[in-house]
């Protein structure tokens, strides 16, 4: 059974989290979702980790500020800097000790990179593995929306202006009546060749729970972040990097540059898939996560045996 909990951050924002798995698990997995989504993006991966039996890790999924069941964020706090600090606090409160595997989809991957940048000692001392899915370390450098560069540039300008308007629209959330009208655009933007009805429905419900301030407010820092150097400083961390070859937001060059900065990373390009890999290609994402967790478990067992031998 999953345990639901909330933590209150220093600025009063409440983060909703769900915890699954044994309390004495040797490794804890923390999964961060993407922009305008929520923790349910990871439902298939949580199920897969439960299936590891005695080797199952502790699993924490949480809703980013301004998303899902978490409370709204102030406009000035709708930044990746803040999300990196929020992740640090999630770890301190809900997984205060032991090795962790961090998984991030889209903005969630950028959150992990920001945590590594802002809290390098904590990152190096705790993180035993990484899963980076449909994300980038180079802002909007490679984002073309699957369109010619001239058209993409115009669309990016319009998106940026629209994001600024939404950021000033407060904590209102899109009304559920509006969501079906968004379905065709989100289907085109976020999914590849195939899109199951339940995957699109879950995505729409996530968008419906994100405040307009969050939908618009995070856009500026997402477009500007540059963290390849940060990743290169942690090149020895086992990692899996996945991307769809039809991803219009974080196309394959984003994943390739991340894998280049992480020599121990295993890069997987999913043919025909778009941006929503945890829902589009759950088996591939789950298999990659399980393998990273197994590697972290083996490393933990080796470290424990070494400590016993040293003590003896």
Automatic annotation (TrEMBL):
PANTHER family: AB HYDROLASE SUPERFAMILY PROTEIN YCLE, MONOACYLGLYCEROL LIPASE. InterPro entries: AB_hydrolase_1, AB_hydrolase_fold, AB_hydrolase_sf, Epox_hydrolase-like. This is Alpha/beta hydrolase. One of its GO terms (cellular component) is membrane. The lineage of its organism: Bacteria, Bacillati, Actinomycetota, Actinomycetes, Micromonosporales. It comes from Actinoplanes siamensis. Keywords: Hydrolase. One of its GO terms (molecular function) is hydrolase activity. Residues 29-288 form the AB hydrolase-1 domain. Pfam families: Abhydrolase_6.
């Amino acid at each position: 059974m999953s345990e639901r909990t909330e933590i209150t951050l220093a600025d009063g924002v409440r983060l909703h989290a769900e915890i699954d798995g044994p309390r004495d698990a040797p490794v804890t997995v923390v999964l961060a979702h993407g922009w305008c989504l929520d923790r349910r993006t990871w439902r298939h991966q949580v199920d897969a980790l439960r299936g590891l039996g005695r080797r199952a890790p502790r699993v924490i999924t949480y809703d980013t500020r301004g998303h899902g069941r978490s409370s709204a964020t102030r406009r000035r706090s709708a930044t990746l800097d803040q999300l990196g600090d929020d992740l640090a606090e999630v770890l301190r409160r809900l997984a205060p000790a032991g090795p962790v595997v961090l998984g991030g989809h889209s903005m969630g991957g950028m959150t992990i990179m920001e945590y590594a940048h802002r809290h390098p000692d904590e990152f190096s001392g705790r993180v035993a593995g990484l899963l980076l899915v449909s994300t980038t370390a180079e802002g909007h450098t490679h984002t073309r929306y699957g369109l010619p560069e001239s058209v993409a540039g115009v669309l990016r300008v319009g998106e940026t202006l629209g994001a600024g308007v939404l950021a000033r629209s407060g904590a209102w959330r899109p009304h559920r009546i509006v969501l079906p009208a968004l379905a065709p655009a989100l289907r085109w933007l976020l999914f590849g060749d195939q899109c199951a009805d339940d995957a699109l429905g879950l995505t729409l419900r996530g968008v419906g729970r994100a405040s307009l301030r969050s939908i618009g407010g995070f856009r500026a820092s997402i477009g500007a972040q540059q963290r390849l150097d940060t990743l290169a400083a942690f090149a020895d961390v086992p990692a899996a990097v996945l991307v769809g070859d039809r991803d219009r937001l974080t196309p394959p060059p984003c994943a390739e540059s991340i894998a280049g900065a992480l020599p121990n990373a295993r890069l997987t390009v999913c043919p025909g898939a778009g941006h929503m890999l945890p829902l589009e290609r759950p088996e591939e994402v789950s298999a990659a996560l399980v393998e990273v967790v197994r590697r972290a478990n083996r490393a933990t067992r080796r470290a424990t045996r070494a400590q016993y031998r040293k003590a003896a």
